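Can you give me the bound-state structure? Components:
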Amino acid sequence: MKETILIIGSGAREHAIAEALARSPQRPKLICFSGARNPGIAALCAAYGIGSIVDPKRVVAFAAEHAPTMAIVGPEAPLAVGVADALWTAKIPVVGPTQALARIESSKGFARELLAKHNIPGNPFFQRFESLDGLEAVLTRFPNQHVIKDDGLAGGKGVKVCGDHLLSLDDSLAFCHELAAAGHPFVIEEKIEGEEFSLMSFCDGKTLRHMPAVQDHKRAYEGDKGPNTGGMGTYTDADHKLPFLTDADIAAAQSINERVAKALAEDCGAPYRGILYGGFMATKDGVKLIEYNARFGDPESLNLLSLLETDFVAVCRSIVDQTLDQQSVDFAREASVCKYIVPDGYPDTPRKGDAVHLPTQLPPDVTLFLSAVDVKEGQLIATGSRTVAVVGKAATIAQAEVLCEQVVQQIPGPFFHRVDIGTATLIDRRVEHMKSLRSA
Ligand code: AMP
Ligand code: GLY
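Here's the bound-state model for the whole set.
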């Protein structure tokens, strides 16, 4: 059967998904539905529909015109409103969980309670609030050592951390009052210290195939300073671990993902078919869970899909058919570094509308993925968010960083990026940090 695959979403993550599908020897027909036209994705697609991806009816109507054999949902918002449910009802198999299963990302309290109920390790102390009752007792139990999270999706703006955004008890109380006044349930948890990493698994509801560990950089500026962003860049290592992690850390994260997939199947009575993304922190007491996501990370997936050696169409097919136990999934034994170029002022007051000039020739091990861009009169224009991602692959992280940086430097204009991602200085700091925590 020749596959026709519907991609939902139009960022760099979906560009990487489209590239990985297009590389398949099965030569699938690709179509895309999204709120914006990404020219990188459009170049790989036979049809491209523009519309709201959080309107399941619109998505299904576009699908009905093109009869895809499978769909893959990139971002979290369509999963949270039941786009996968609507597509399955229309007999279109989906890589991406149904609404009930996607609560693993769309409700932080649901994720924490699932771990607690099934005795899965990794939770710090947490409590979910629907009102302000009992609030001060928890805040004073963990003075200057707590994190407050909007229970629902908040586009990266729903989490405030003591020491970063919350500098006093009054700050914490004010944020809780703000959430309660807006009618948002929230979770307060103990602040944990360590180094963050992402461990994603392909999951068909029964079998998981784990991907290499990745480290993202959420802060906008060098040295992990400045506001939080969607992620400024990422790296992976050739051994599929990270220099600051132990084998036991990787095994613990993989085991948590496996147990969470099983717990989800039990509690929801349906298989989780998609990508299960654990956001973890290595601490002196082992691996702790920061959050779950119900989709590929962005930019993590840009590294991982660039390294994926197995036919991605076959992987997607085995996820929806629940035959992942018969499908091996291999990644190149190479390191990778990804850096995003973003407009000056990003993320709070980004410039918009500047021309983006890309190099015409790229070294063989470098790939570009387009994100928040548009085309006006034949010119690529930045639309105000993460603009272009550059991924370099090489034998070592240091070599991949040099390759990536060389290409990033060739993109002129009022943009910036984090030079430090993937450099020895930054990675040594992570290693030293973990060493000092572990020896304390
Ligand atoms: P999230 O949106 O859940 O990924 O949270 C955003 C950021 O807040 C994470 O990347 C962490 O840096 C930080 N964070 C979230 N939960 C905790 C926690 N319990 N302890 C320390 N930092 C946290
Ligand atoms: N890179 C973080 C995320 O995709 O949520």
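A couple of observations. The pocket of adenosine monophosphate (ligand 1) is lined by residues 124, 147, 159, 161, 189, 191-192, 196, 218, 279, 290-291 (CB under 6 Å). Residues 195 and 282 are 5 Å apart (CA to CA).
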